[in-house]
Structure formats: structure tokens, C-alpha cells
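Let us work through a complete example step by step.
Step 1: write down the sequence.
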Amino acid sequence: MPSRRPDTDAITPLQRAAILVMYLEREAARAVLKHLSDEEVKQLGKAAADLGDVDEELVEDVIGAFVGEFQAVNMLPATGQDFARRVLPALIAEERRSRIAGSVRRDPRDFETYIRARPVRAVAAALKEEHPQVRAVALLRMGVDNAARILACLSEEDQADLTIRMARTERVSPELAEDVEMALRLAVGDIEDPIALGGVEGTARILGRMGPERNSVVLTGVRSQSDSLADDLIRKMVRFEDLERLDGRGMQALLRTVESADLVLALKGATPVLRDRFLANLSQRAAADVREELELGGPTRRSHIRDAQDRIVASARKLSDEGVIFLDSGAGEGG
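Step 2: predict the structure and record it as C-alpha cells.
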């Protein structure tokens, strides 16, 4: 009668260790036993003798449990990449390590993925602090899509210089490539994701809520230093959406100054509420014509819609400056 297969849960830890050693190659088993004391070797031998017959299924169970425990304490690399980075360098003779391990460990896709996940302007800002040749190597290492977006954020002078440097850089040492990647990771890691503040757009909205008497004083001060910035702020103090606040008389006065083609274009990008406000202040026939053009018109570039809206807003500002309409940009909202 064949001997009964020992139950996996019934065998002792020593017996598990004995099974593992029994099924190692001779040289590997010898290397393991070298690290045990004489007493431990004796105990291991006694545990093996007590096992009797050991079938393949029990061996698989024991080895499977051992590998799981090994991974749980992070002694065994979880992935091939972990092995290449953490284990392989230690297995290579020191005189060969610098020639082999660096290129094996590096995965360009890892750096490319890291950069792609960071804000473009944050990476560009970090690059500006580096030596130009380091910038060139970093751009060449981060993948063409990342590099194109980041290069576009730099000054034209920097773009030209870096383009020349990249074109002249055929290859670099593995150590330099790793140093460049690590330097940029550290630099970008110190930069938190930027918080959008609005810039000119947000500033213009703030001025709009101050009311014309106060913001005109501010704008005069701005204009003394920068005409272009003052003009930009004025253009953005009132948005097309703000025209929804015009009363009926003001809307009708504005519509008398607006070209029909501009109105159709502008309304293509308007909210339903704002579109209805404009149409409600046209004659029935004019409103019907505009609706028909909106329905029959094909796709329109967003830039053309914005330009038409800007022209209508400019007309509204002019009427407001002349006192013809009251242009409410939300002054006094929020307290």
C-alpha cells in the first residue's frame, strides 16, 4: 500500500526547509548549507529523514508558499525591472558593472512617462535652471512629444540654441544620461503642480468688479507703464457672457451697432440663455433670419467666433463709455 502523502499544513517549518534544500541543484544546496551551523544541518537532515516519500504536488505547494513569503518581505524582485535595477548590478563583477549594469537598468520609457505626467511649464521652469547641454540631453531623453511641448515653452533664443545642441549630440555616456535624468527628476519633484491664478484674465475680472470710477484710476497707472497691458486688461474686463446683464433697452442699442454676420458668428459660441436674450431683442423677422443662419451654417473655427464676440464687446464698451448703455461687469458681486 503506497505511503500517504503528507499534508502541507501538517509538516513542520524544518521539514519545509528540508524539501526546499532537497530539490535545489547540488551547488545551490551546498551554498545554502555553508551558512548553517553543524547543529542546524543535523536538524535539517533529521527533518528530511522523517518525511519519507515526498510527491511532486507537495514540493510544488512548499515552493509556491516559499516564493509567496519571499515576495512579501521584498527579498525577491516583484518585476523584471526591479531585478534589473536592484539585483543584477550586485551580481556583476565590479570591473564589468559600469559597462553593463547602467544600460541594462535604464528604461527610457520610464523617464518619458514620468515627464509626461508632470506639468509642462513646471518641467520647462526646472530646465531653465540647468546648464544648456544638460537641457539638450534631457530633451533628447524624454521622448519627442514631451520635448516638443517643453521646447515650445522656452524663449526663441533658447529654442534655437537647444536645437543646435541637440542636433550635435549623437551619444552620451550611460552615467551622464542617468545623471541628467536624476537631476531633472529631483528638480521637477521639488515643484508642486502649479495652481492656475488667471493672470491677465483674472486680473481684468477683478478690475471689472471694482466699477468704472475706481478701475479707471488703476488702469491709468497701468498705462503709464504698459499701454499694451492696459489695453489687454480693458478688453478682458468685460466678456461676451457679461452682455447677458444688459437690460432690454441696452441690448437693443447694442444690436443697432452690430453687423449681422458678427452676430451670427458670435451666437454660435453663446450659451442658450445669452442667445435667447439677443434674439428676444430683435424683430421677429430679424430673429428668424438669424436662427435660420445658425441652423444652416456649417462648422466654424473657434477663433472666428471669438473674434466676432470681441468686436461686439468692443462696441458695448464704446457705448458704455458714451453713456448710451450701462455695462454691468459684475461690480460689487461677492460683497
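Step 3: interpret the result. Confidence is low (pLDDT under 50) at residues 1-5, 73-78, 331-335.
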